[in-house]
Specification:
The protein has 303 residues and is of the alpha/beta class. It is built from 14 helices and 10 strands. The protein has 2 domains: 1-109 and 204-303, P-loop containing nucleotide triphosphate hydrolases (Rossmann fold); 120-202, no CATH class. Bound molecules: adenosine-5'-triphosphate (ATP). Keywords: Amino-acid transport, ATP-binding, Nucleotide-binding, Transport.
Length: 303
């Protein structure tokens, strides 16, 4: 069967290991994420998902292993050549384990959200989306004399940033709350605003750490629709950590399962959810025929 994560990966993780003292949080994990796919990283609490995310996005420097990323083609020969050099990228292929978080965000164009909401609560919803675009604005002299003088290049950049922010607010149903402090919005709205903020960076890969955490069933459904629409537009691939199987099974093209820091399964959602090792390890039960377990992995469990 042809799969994009094999034929056309945007991300290739090879033998990634992350140790904290004597604890191996991620143990020799390899997988690929397909260009244009939604790839879900699942596993029980403490499996190493967030640690792996933190390695991808430059918050941790992995103990060993390689993370190759490209908005173009991930060509094996070029990856090897880059690996032998001391460089971080060749202009198109990036070795993320060699890069700092800000370089990964700006040059490779990976954007991420966190398990805990990290908006600026006192700033308005619109301002939160404008801040995300600060680099584009500063490039157009936001902080320089040209910005103070309101020169045309800056005015155009500012208008483009406002337009993009407004379009995202509209899309997530928050245009009418544009001027309200982000911290005053209901929890589910804040989660969507965080995704909009990440999308204002126009990422090639959007990395979401438990975007459905704390959402009710209707909000989870809305979130899944939003992510599917982002994926279908074809500009942004998505990698998400998620415990809510209804979201995972509804939108994922590819599921990678970790347990105790190791990869235990990797494939299409249907294959993975029927894998006895996943049923046993992910849910901490021995009996793969347990109907409640099957319902949870199928995303049908009552919440
Ligand atoms: N900074 C750190 N220092 C020491 N140990 C850590 C650190 N970060 C994570 N760990 C440990 O690494 C292991 C994996 O944790 P991690 O948060 O990556 O798991 P997870 O799969 O994301 O879990 P959850 O689903 O609960 O968020 C855990 O045993 C955790 O205690």
């Amino acid at each position: 069967m042809s799969a994009r994560w094999i034929d056309d990966p945007i991300l290739r993780v090879d033998h990634l290991t992350m140790r904290f003292g004597g604890l191996t949080a991620v143990n020799d994990v390899s997988f690929s994420a397909g260009r244009g796919d939604v790839t879900a990283l699942i596993g029980p609490n403490g499996a190493g998902k967030t640690t792996l995310f933190n390695c991808l996005t430059g918050f941790y420097k992995p103990t060993s292993g390689r993370i190759a990323f490209s908005s173009g083609r991930l060509d094996d020969a070029r990856i090897e050549k880059l690996t032998r050099s001391a460089r971080k990228h060749d202009g198109e292929i990036f070795l993320l384990e060699r890069m700092a978080d800000h370089e990964i965000a700006r040059q490779a164009r990976l954007a991420r959200t966190f398990q805990n909401i990290r908006l600026f609560p006192g700033m308005s919803a619109l301002e939160n989306l404008m801040i995300a675009q600060g680099r584009e604005l500063s490039r157009a002299a936001f902080f320089s004399i040209a910005g103070l003088l309101g020169l045309p290049a800056w005015r155009r950049a500012e208008q483009a940033a406002v337009d993009q922010a407004t379009a995202w607010l509209e899309r997530i149903g928050l245009r009418h709350r544009a001027n309200d402090p982000a911290g005053s919005l209901p929890y589910g709205d804040q989660r969507r605003l965080e995704i909009a903020r990440a999308m204002c960076l126009r990422p090639t890969l959007l990395c979401l750490d438990e975007p459905a955490a704390g959402l009710n069933a209707a909000e989870s459904h809305g979130l899944a629709e939003l992510l599917r629409a982002i994926r279908d537009e074809g500009e942004t691939s998505i990698l998400l950590i998620e415990h809510d199987m209804s979201v995972v099974m509804r939108i994922s093209d590819h599921v990678v399962v970790l347990d105790y820091g190791q990869k235990i399964a990797d494939g299409a959602p249907r294959e993975v959810r029927e894998d006895p090792a996943v049923i046993a390890a992910y849910l901490g039960v021995e009996d793969p025929d347990e109907p409640a377990v099957e319902a949870v992995l199928a995303g049908n469990a009552p919440t």
